[in-house]
């Protein structure tokens, strides 16, 4: 046996046939053919062995081919031995004076009898056999019967005849017969591979569909045109609390009678009661050439939908919508600050709206984050937005979101607003006094109804959000002058928290200075603190910019310390705070305006509008409430 089993195995009853098979393979460049010499049952043993080793097709002839076809379980290509092959040999033996014996597989005997009559060989003796055991006996008998010439096939016949000194003739197949058989075997192998590939692709597709169906939390049912269930995934069976045999072929109207008629050419969605709970059902008709041939039903447990929505919001929360600060992060020991912290801490135990009032730089968002982190909503998102930095259209799209196609340049699929993102948590609206009147009306509705409507949508979405607002303006005066809605003012002014300015917390200035230096400039901390204690200017200054101004001063001193040491740092301190330590209050800077007096949006607002409009300047200009040329001028001024 050859060492390597290949796709095609030629099992040859004679060595001559094996050599001819190899010759044809060399000529045709067949590299996937193995050859073996064996006959009948011995050939069957080889066939069973090579089958385990991966052989696909067997090639053999006459009786051995018949045995392999009946008992191997493999596809067999027969090298045809025709009567013409025998006729060619028998004609040469017609004038033989002795006794002729023909040893052949039993299925050939009737044809050989006719052939002998045709060539007038009535004295020829035929020796039929059906298997290996019979073959050995018949070949031995043909020799013992006194035949002077033997013809036929098989290895033993040649051996027995040679030992007895009797001439013999093996009927070999022509090279054309061998070539034709091997070509057929190659085609069978190619066909098997093609079918195997198709079968594999079918199995992969079937497995993929099964995984899709059974690895989703949504229940999926497929019904035929009569509304009978044909397919049900595991999630659907769990929702229905049934097994597949109970559901298969069952009318959909019987499974979910609340759906009514199972037929319909239009999709719809309904809420139905299922085993004491609520289930959302989407009906999607299956249409072929305009005819409804069935439907797909998607079932969702409402509790699972709510849980999934919560998980999505938590993912958004983890991506950055979270509060970092707690009450212990608020530095200072003054009585006014401690009182503000106590009031804020008590507010954290409720869900009511809080209005945080205080000058710019006093730490209003720090208090808002601390209230959130001390509340029952601490595990939810904290979303903050500065309402003064955005134009009307941009602010509305940020707060309430929008649907696809709501305006030119709207993102594909739409975008959720900050109220949606803050669901289950807190939204912080800084500089609420800057919100335009139209947006104030929408905000009031959200606060009253606890639901939002995306821009361009006709559907409302419920939201569970705690609102904290902040302002540095006197909103009561804004109401009197008509710049702020009275009803919105009363709605946000339920809990009021006033943050004292730094000039009223004189004892906290040095505490804050040491804290910020330790946090941001630890190497320069001690040296700068010595300068601050020696000059005592920090406690005499009025701090119009509050804590933010203090942080800026410390950063300048630390930055210049590296270049000039203490002398330069002390000069910076004196120049910043004044030799006497007292400077007039610095008014709040007004927003930049152009020559016409129009307030120019800041850099952040312009960049945000450009991003939302995919950097289309015309669309961004409309969102910001200015012309395209004006936006271009603003961008040039700001270096955008």
Describe what this molecule looks like in 3D:
There is one protein chain. This protein has 640 residues and is of the alpha/beta class. 47% of the residues lie in helices and 17% in strands. The strands form 6 sheets. It has a 5-stranded antiparallel sheet. It has a 5-stranded parallel sheet with strand order 15-18-21-14-22. Strands 2-1-3-4 form a 4-stranded parallel sheet, with helices on both faces. Helix 3 links the parallel strand 3 and strand 4. Helix 13 packs across helix 14 and helix 25 packs across helix 26. The radius of gyration is 48 Å and the shape is elongated. About 2% of the residues have low confidence.
Which percent band covers the strand fraction?
15-25%
Give the terminus-to-terminus CA distance. 81 Å
Fraction of residues in H or I helices: 40-55%
- Count the beta strands: 22
Q: Strand order across the biggest sheet?
A: 10-9-13-12-11
The residue ranges in which pLDDT falls below 50 over 5 or more consecutive positions are: 579-591
In round numbers, the mean pLDDT is 82
How many helices? The count is 26
Helix/strand/pairing class, anyone?
alpha/beta
Coarse shape:
elongated
Q: How is the main sheet built?
A: 5 strands, antiparallel
Rg, please? 48 Å
Keywords:
elongated, 640 residues, 5-stranded parallel beta sheet, alpha/beta
């Amino acid at each position: 046996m050859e060492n390597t089993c290949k796709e095609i195995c030629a099992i040859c009853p004679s060595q001559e046939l094996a050599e001819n098979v190899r010759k044809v393979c060399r000529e045709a460049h067949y590299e996937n053919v193995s050859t073996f010499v064996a006959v009948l049952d011995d050939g069957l043993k080889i066939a069973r062995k090579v089958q385990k080793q991966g052989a696909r097709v067997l090639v053999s002839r006459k009786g051995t081919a018949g045995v392999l076809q009946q008992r191997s379980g493999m596809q067999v290509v027969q090298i045809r031995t025709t009567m013409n092959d025998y006729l060619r040999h028998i004609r040469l033996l017609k004038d033989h004076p002795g006794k002729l014996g023909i040893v052949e597989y039993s299925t050939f005997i009737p044809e050989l009898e006719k052939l002998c009559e045709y060539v007038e060989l009535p004295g020829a003796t035929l020796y039929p056999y059906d298997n290996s055991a019979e073959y050995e006996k018949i070949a031995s008998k043909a020799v013992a019967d006194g035949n002077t010439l033997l013809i036929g096939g098989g290895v033993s016949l040649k051996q027995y005849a040679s030992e007895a000194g009797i001439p013999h003739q093996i009927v070999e197949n022509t090279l054309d017969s061998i070539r034709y058989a091997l070509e057929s075997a190659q085609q069978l192998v190619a066909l098997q591979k093609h079918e195997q590939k198709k079968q594999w692709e079918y199995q992969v597709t079937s497995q993929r569909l099964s995984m899709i169906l059974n690895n989703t939390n949504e229940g999926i049912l497929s019904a035929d045109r009569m509304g009978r269930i044909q397919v049900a995934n595991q999630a659907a069976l769990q929702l229905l609390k049934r097994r597949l045999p109970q559901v298969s072929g069952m009318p959909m109207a019987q499974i979910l009678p609340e759906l009514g008629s199972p037929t319909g050419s239009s999709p719809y969605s309904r809420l139905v009661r299922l085993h004491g709970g609520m289930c959302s059902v989407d009906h999607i008709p299956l249409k072929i050439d305009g005819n409804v041939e069935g439907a797909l039903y998607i079932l969702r447990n409402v509790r699972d939908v709510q849980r999934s929505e919560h998980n999505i919001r938590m993912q958004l929360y983890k991506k950055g919508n979270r509060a970092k600060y707690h009450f212990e992060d608020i530095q200072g020991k003054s009585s006014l600050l401690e009182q503000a912290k106590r009031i804020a801490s008590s507010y954290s135990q409720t869900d009511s709206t809080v209005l945080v009032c205080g000058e710019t730089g006093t730490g209003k968002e720090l208090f808002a984050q601390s209230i959130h982190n001390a509340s029952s909503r601490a595990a939810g998102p904290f979303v903050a937005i500065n309402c003064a930095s955005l134009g009307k259209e941009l602010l509305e799209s940020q707060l309430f979101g929008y649907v696809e196609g709501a305006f030119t340049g709207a993102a594909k699929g739409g975008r959720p607003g900050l109220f949606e993102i803050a669901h289950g948590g807190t939204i912080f609206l800084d500089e609420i006094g800057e919100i335009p009147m139209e947006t104030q009306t929408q905000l009031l509705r959200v606060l009253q109804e606890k639901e939002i409507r995306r821009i361009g949508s006709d559907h409302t979405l419920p939201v569970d959000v705690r609102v904290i607002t902040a302002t540095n303006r006197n909103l009561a005066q804004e109401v009197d002058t008509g710049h702020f809605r009275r009803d919105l003012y009363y709605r946000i002014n339920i809990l009021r928290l006033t943050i004292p300015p730094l000039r009223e917390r004189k004892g906290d200035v040095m505490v804050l200075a040491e804290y910020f230096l330790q946090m941001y400039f630890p190497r320069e901390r001690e040296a700068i603190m010595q300068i601050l204690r020696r000059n005592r200017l920090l406690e005499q200054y009025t701090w119009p910019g509050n804590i933010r101004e203090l942080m800026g001063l410390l950063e300048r001193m630390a930055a210049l310390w590296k270049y000039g040491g203490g002398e330069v740092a002390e000069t910076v301190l004196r120049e910043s705070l004044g030799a006497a330590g007292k400077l007039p209050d610095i008014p709040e800077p007004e927003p930049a305006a152009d020559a016409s007096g129009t307030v120019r949006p800041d850099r952040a607002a312009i960049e945000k509008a450009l991003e939302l409009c995919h950097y289309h300047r015309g669309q961004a200009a409309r969102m910001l409430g200015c012309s395209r040329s004006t936006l271009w001028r603003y961008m040039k001024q700001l270096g955008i």
